[in-house]
Design a protein that fits this description.
It contains three helices and three strands. The protein has 99 residues and is α+β, with helices and mostly antiparallel strands. The chain has one domain: Helix Hairpins (Orthogonal Bundle), CATH 1.10.287.70. β1 and β2 form a beta hairpin.
């Protein structure tokens, strides 16, 4: 648990850093080709190149475990990066709860 406000600030700062780093990973692999990410909407599904805001959205929804499913990683590299982010956030949260 958090012992004081500094622990909370440190934890939130770490979350923001991780979100930014993974956003950049998503953006770098998804900006050139349409083979890594699928967008679902009421108009159907389509493969897209990720914009920076799309990459940030994907990272935040992955890290917060909301996972709307509107942007889905479909290539092995995109799925691997998502899995790493998910495991990392569970380790952060678990570490804060245990210590």
């Amino acid at each position: 648990m958090f012992k004081n406000i500094n622990d909370v600030i440190r934890f939130m700062g770490l979350q923001i850093i991780v979100i930014i780093i993974f956003s950049l990973f998503y953006y770098l692999i998804g900006r050139k080709t349409k083979t890594h990410f699928l967008v679902r909407s009421r108009y159907g599904h389509r493969l897209i190149k990720l914009s920076l805001i799309d990459a940030l959205f994907l990272s935040v929804t992955t890290q917060s475990t909301i996972g709307y499913g509107s942007i889905t990683p479909i290539s092995p590299i995109a799925k691997t990066i998502s899995i790493i982010q998910m495991i990392l956030i569970y380790l952060f949260i678990g570490g804060e709860i245990l210590f």
